[in-house]
Design the sequence.
């Protein structure tokens, strides 16, 4: 996502991509799953390194792979709303936007026992109307700091790592994708990045935990 003009910068300001924390902590996030092949691999990497993450799941994918989503929840990861069908919310009416979020919301609540508090708009496409819809439903809209990593287009593991490492600092929210395509490069990049961050002293926490840390002055 380019950020060259003022309009695009205003759009990005509607999404939280960094959180002001003092501790060495970042939030890894994964979009478009759960996927039966790649999501368990990522969960295994996190498990072996003592990390937690936020998975922004698509309702349709959740219906197909509910067992994987349940495993993520049971292992302490956070599940966020990435809409029911991965529709671009800015192209929809107010009623359609609500339907996209509410459908995925119901599935997530049935699986976890509570409503999600975070959503990430597909394609990170957001405008004032979409932001208001999310806020009215009690959601916080989440972006990411490492947009140039572009793991979704399979640019190579080295590219993903380079453009993620450059954005690592306390409070960064980092985006990756675990579904809707070949995510082998993402898995490889995460397998390098996660132990690297842990060796540097970083805690790998959920987005909600990162927000709590900021509220607590940590």
Sequence:
């Amino acid at each position: 996502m380019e950020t060259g003009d003022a309009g695009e910068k205003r759009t990005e300001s509607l999404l939280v991509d960094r959180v002001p924390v003092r501790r060495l902590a970042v939030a890894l996030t994964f979009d478009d799953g759960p996927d039966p092949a790649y999501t368990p691999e990522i969960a295994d990497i996190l498990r072996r390194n003592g990390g937690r993450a936020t998975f922004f799941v698509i309702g349709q994918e959740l219906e197909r792979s509910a067992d994987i989503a349940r495993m993520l929840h049971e292992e302490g990861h956070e599940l966020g709303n990435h809409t029911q069908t991965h529709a671009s919310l800015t192209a929809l009416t107010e009623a359609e936007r609500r339907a996209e979020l509410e459908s995925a919301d119901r599935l997530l609540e049935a699986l976890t026992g509570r409503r999600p508090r975070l959503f990430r708009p597909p394609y990170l496409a957001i405008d004032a109307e979409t932001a208001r819809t999310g806020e009215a439903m009690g959601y916080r809209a989440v972006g990411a700091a490492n947009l140039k990593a572009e793991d979704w287009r399979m640019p190579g593991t080295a590219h993903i790592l380079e453009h993620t490492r450059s954005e690592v600092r306390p409070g960064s929210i980092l985006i990756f994708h675990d579904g809707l395509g070949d995510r082998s490069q993402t898995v490889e990049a995460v397998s390098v990045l996660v132990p690297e961050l842990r060796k540097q002293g970083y805690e790998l926490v959920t987005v909600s935990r990162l927000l709590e840390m900021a509220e607590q002055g940590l």
